[in-house]
Amino acid sequence: MDLINIVATLIKIILLFAISLTAVAFCTWLERRGAAWIQGRRGPCRVGPFGLLQPVADGIKFFFKESFVPEKSNKFFYLAAPILTLTIPFLAMVSIPFAENLYILNHEIPMRIARFDSGILLVIAFTGLEVYPVMIGGWASNNKFSVLGSLRAASQMIAYEISMGLALLSMILVYGTFDMNEMVRFQEKWMWGCFINPIAALIFWFSIFAETNRLPCDIPEGESEIVAGYHLEYGAMKFALFFMSEYVAMIMASALIATLFFGGYSLLPGFSLVEKGIVALFSIRSEIVNHNLFIIFQLLSIFLKIAFFMFVFIWVRWTLPRFRFDQLMDLGWKILFPLALANVLLMGIVSYFFIYR
Amino acid sequence: MVTKTLNVSRKHEIKEKFYLIAVLQGMWITLKYFCRGFFLWKSYTINYPEEKRNYSQRFRGMHFISYDENKIENCTACYLCQTVCPAECITIIAEERDPLKNPSGVWKEKKPKSFDIDALRCCFCGMCEESCPKDAIKLSRNYELATRTREQAIYNLDHLKREVKGRG
Amino acid sequence: MSFNNQNIVVNKRRMYINYCSDKKPLENLEDQENLENQENQENQKNRPLKNKINIDGKEIEFLPGDTIMQAAERGGIAHKIPRYCYHPGLPIAGSCRMCNVEIEKASKLMTACSTPASNGMVVHTNTSKVQKACTGVMEFLLTNHPLDCPVCDQAGECELQEYNYEYGPGTSRFSETKRVFTNATTKRLSDKITLNMNRCINCERCIRFEETITKSYELVMLNRSWEKELTLSNYESDENDKDDEDKMPTKGLTSSYQGCLADICPVGALTFNDFRFQKRVWFLNRQPSICDACSKGCNIEVHFENDIIYRYTPIFNEKVNRHWMCDRGRISYHDVEDSGRITMPFMNTIDSHLHSVEWMTVLSYLKSTLAIAKKVLIILGTDSTCEEAKLFINRIPSLSKGEVKVCFYNGTGDVSSSKDDEKIDYLLQMKDQTANTKGLELLGIPPLETSYVPDSTDNTDSTDSDVVIYFRSGRAGVGGRGGLELKLKSSASLFLWGVFYKKELDKAALKQIVAIIPGLMTVEKSGTFINCDSLSQSFTSAITHKGAALPADVIFQIMILENRSAIRS
Predict the structure, then answer these.
(1) Is residue A129 less than 8 Å (CB to CB) from chain B?
(2) Domain range enclosing C530
(3) Neighbours of chain C (3+ CB pairs under 8 A)
(4) What is the pLDDT of residues A252-287, one digit of tens each?
(5) Whether residue C359 sits in one domain with residue C463
(6) C119 & C181 share domain
(7) In this predicted model, what pLDDT tens digit does every residue of A273-326 receive, in sequence order?
(8) Are strands C58-62 and C51-55 parallel, antiparallel or unpaired?
(9) Would you give the distance in Å from CA C418 to the centre of its chain?
(10) What is the pLDDT of residue C3?
(11) Residue B94: which of C198, C277, C282 has the nearest Cβ?
(12) Cβ-defined contact of B37 to A36 (cutoff 8 Å)
């Protein structure tokens, strides 16, 4: 690894942070504005044009609020939880490819931060870690509501992690690889994974809701029962970190779904025509420039896909009512888990007889 | 004692049991509303302080006390509104008007020394307005009565005399 | 006896005082008839011939010389006949024509107040003819009456309102401008009475009152008809403009019964300044009591709202005050409402300043002081009730083993016992300004020895009591010599018990006062007064106690039984 690769990696990390956090800010705006539109209201429209600066105002407010630590809490874990909760979704994003390799100055730069051949395992590992900051935060606050909230979160996340893992397993059976780049190429060649394996797509999609604690599965929070749940004792910027981590996890989940089931960075229908049109229009001869242009369109494709899934997250949240806890557990253990198991068996048969024959 | 339990739960068909269709129907409805807000910029609420809804001419809001051309209130402290008030929110203390500051003469020899309306107790029934023999107390269409403290919601004579856009 | 509640059925809305009369039923006819039917016929034969009149189907017996109205009063149905100029305590004028009644075999309607009743007369008070006449009179009275009931203080107890509600036409055909007296709309007849001539209906009750009851002849009617105006008769005699009738008099009304003018005025023409614009009468609760401003013991009605007294009005009592009441008694309620009245227990500390203390502190101190005292002197103000005097006589010896001496002290003016008491005017007012001097004397309590009184010439040293308790309820020793300046032994400790005022304490000998125990005024307590004519009158409390004050019997109960539950916070 030479210097340019190190610099490129650093730039990629910074870009990932910048783009993700900007997207988080935009998502909070869209969350509130979208809720208002769906409910026939106006939503935040005072700060900036269309209320777009509302996240900035929120951020300023978070910074200037009193940052306190509860007296009888476990100080170390109390402070560690918000840091962990934001770090883990970012780490999970490390191995997701956003495009094919880019060529700059005769150097091949992969459009993902870390090149793992078995990237999907890393993703599973880090999503599995997401339950820890919730547990730590709830326990360290020394508040019974926080503990109850974190218990609920833990049981729910663990329950759905199994069906999510099994859905992933079925897709690995289909793609025959752990490398996410290979998965995308497979989908480019054949068809999007959601058409090959719609049941897994549905199971995965629903499990993601439970994993990210979004409505209809926001059992860890509940104003009428346990106030704010596991982040009850967190205020100011520490709460903001929990708040942001939810959106970062959503972005990560959207990217994962897009990669696994919706063709990843493969171009959206019609994009290849536009790309070819541009090449013809400007009569680009250079092979490298042509390739890099192609990659820009790939980036555009995956960003649009992620944005769409972010919208779906918000859309679902303001449409569906929340589950009762027993209903949620019933759904996880009694329906999704057997279904996912059967689906793995089915996909094994399908892939053995139809794909890798 | 024998109790009979009647099970009224509805049998769901398989189509209904598979909630995904119902979910998608709901999603379609919310999507329509989202687009209505996003593209057509329509909403049922208004930007309140800038825009205000048009209330009926008969709306009964905060009271005011009318006065004559000499800026002397028409109220003669007859206590009829205090008597008729079902919420007992009006408190009047009467006194004799200083003859030197009384251009209206004997017709306004009695005046309210204090005239307090507790807007928190008031039920805006308008019976004070009906009972007033001098048309002094009236109900305006002002409905913006928010105050910072409870004490501020007890309006005195000076406040009630301030000109209010009324209906009478 | 308690109140003289005669069997007068008066519409509750109407004011009592103008409808009570001393014309009593001669005997109960119905009982007599039953007796006759059941027993023998002889009684009927032996029964002397009596004058009988039939009013609205009721047979009423009357004395010769009675008018129809007075006969109706004997029958207890006088409230059926409306009236303005007629007043039971005043001579008959017959000027308002409101009391029209229909008499059978008489072609015209007659005025009930001035037509003499005769035997066998049959009178109807509520025929359509009578009602039509009343409606006409009402319409006529209302032509010039300003409809300023919102401002008028009489509204709510106004006879014009009452009868207009009952008989009035509802509409007026009078479309001309109403008469306005520019100089007599709000005219001070004195510092107590205000005249509003526009409201006057010329019943002349006030003039007859001045002529016959107070005999001061201070009010006259000037002019006639449309311009008829009530004025003072004592004009300033100015040579230059003799013809100027509207000139203000040098002095207004001087009689001490001016409040009665406002009482008897059927409309709001004459109003009492002390009550003017203070309260609308329909808010007032009413409770009978006894006036304690002099030894006459006038029957009064306490008008109050939320335990704040707004006025006293007289109640009719034939044997005491009839319909009247003096102005001094009428405004004496200010003493109850006085902001300087001490209503918390106070104790004198080492720095000779009075400090507010808890009830139990002062009462346990009083108890311990009494227990070790050798000679106890109890000075009862002559305004305390007979019950309180008995309490002190009976209870103090059980608290103190020493020699207990009880005596009463008047301290108002030159009066020291009821022998000095005398009338100071022609009607009601007495020299003794406390209510119960006679009662304490009848209980056998001796008057205070003259050596205690500050300005006495008797200098014999008999003031050797250790503990002196001075009990009064706000009247005794207030005027005149100042009751707090008693000559006492310097080591004696003085307990003040009852109603005291802060302004009195400034000049009092603070060193002598050990504690002040707040007590009740007459209107706050129940008891019995015996007035100057040896008439015993009981009364119950009208309003709740001010502040933390407690009745004397409760205080004794606390001290003897250690019963703390009676103490209010």
Answers:
(1) no
(2) 346-566
(3) B
(4) 999 999 988 988 888 888 777 887 888 788 777 777
(5) yes
(6) no
(7) 887 888 788 777 777 888 888 888 888 898 999 999 999 999 998 898 888 888
(8) antiparallel
(9) 22
(10) 40
(11) C277
(12) yes
How many other C-beta atoms lie within 10 A of the C-beta of residue C32? 14
Pairwise CA distance, residues A298 & A272, whole Å: 10
Same domain, C435 and C322: no
Contact in structure between C234 and C251 (CB atoms under 8 Å): yes
How far does Cα A244 stand from its chain's mean position? Answer: 12
Same domain for C362 and C311: no
Euclidean distance between CA atoms A23 and C202, whole angstroms: 93
Token pair for C339 = 């902001």
CA distance A59 to C422: 92
Same domain, residue pair C426 and C511: yes
Length of chain B in terms of residues written: 168
Contact C151 B78 (CB under 8 A): yes
**Domain residue spans in chain B?**
12-48, 63-161
Q: List the single residue in B with minimal CA-CA distance to C198.
A: B106
Closest alpha carbon to A103 in A296, A233, A239, A283: A296
For chain C, helix (H) and strand (E) counts, in that order, are 14, 22
Report the number of distinct structural domains present in chain C: 3
Q: Look at B83 and C185 and tell me if their CB atoms are within 8 Å.
A: no
**pLDDT tens digits for range A44-74:** 888 888 888 988 998 899 889 888 888 888 8
pLDDT confidence tier of residue C48, bands split at 50, 70 and 90? low
C351 and C493 in a single domain? The answer is yes
Beta-carbon pairs below 8 A across chains B and C: 34
C177 touches chain B (CB under 8 A): no
pTM of the model: 0.71
Strand (E) or helix (H) holding B90: strand B90-96
Q: Give CA angle at C507 (C503, C509), nearest 5°.
A: 125
Indicate whether C341 belongs to any domain: no
Mutate to test the interface with B, among C151, C180, C182 (most CBs of B within 10 A): C151
Residues C213 and C301 in one domain: yes
Would C469 be classed as within a structural domain?
yes
Q: Which CATH class is domain B63-161?
A: alpha beta
Q: Is residue C248 part of a domain?
A: yes
Interface probe, candidates A29, A31, A37, chain B, greatest B C-beta count within 10 A: A37
Of B34, B37, B46, the CB nearest to A315: B34
Instruction: Report the alpha-carbon distance of residue C359 to residue C346 in Å, rounded.
Output: 9
B19 to chain A, any CB pair closer than 8 A? The answer is no
**Residue C465, SS3?**
coil
C133, C109 in Cβ contact below 8 A? yes
Residue C1 inside a domain? The answer is: no
User: Which helix or strand (DSSP H or E) is residue C304 part of?
Assistant: strand C299-305
B134 chain-C contacts, CB cut-off 8 A? 150
Confirm if C94 and C85 have CB atoms less than 8 A apart. yes
Residue of B nearest to A206 (CA): B20
- Examine the pLDDT at C565 and tell me if it is beyond 80: no
Residues of B in contact with C283 (CB under 8 A): 79, 83
Contact with chain B for residue A318, Cβ under 8 A: yes
Q: Are both C353 and C306 inside the same structural domain?
A: no
Asked which of C311, C336, C361 is the last residue of a domain, the reply is C336
**ipTM, interface predicted TM-score of the complex:** 0.78
